[in-house]
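From the shared-data thread, chain only:
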Amino acid sequence: DLERMGNHFGGKLPEALNTVFRYKEKLKSGKKNTRNNEEHATHASEKVKKFYTAETVRRGLELLSIDYMLLGLEVPEWARQMLRDDARTDISD
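Structure, as tokens:
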């Protein structure tokens, strides 16, 4: 995703991203991220639920929506799930 974003926006961004994340070296060495895409390696998805509600996630996504659109980012699965769960709760109430 970093390479795709860097190539999309061009300029010095690909070099800057590689300087920070060193992803090109990892790709060359064949190292891959083997973690499950459904859960962040630090279990952040579960921690987020302790501090944020569906309402705060919704508002955050509203404020960051232009970034998500311009950078071609996907809403994290934990956020989608939290919003789906909230919608189900509203329907059953």
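The first helix runs from residue 2 to 9.
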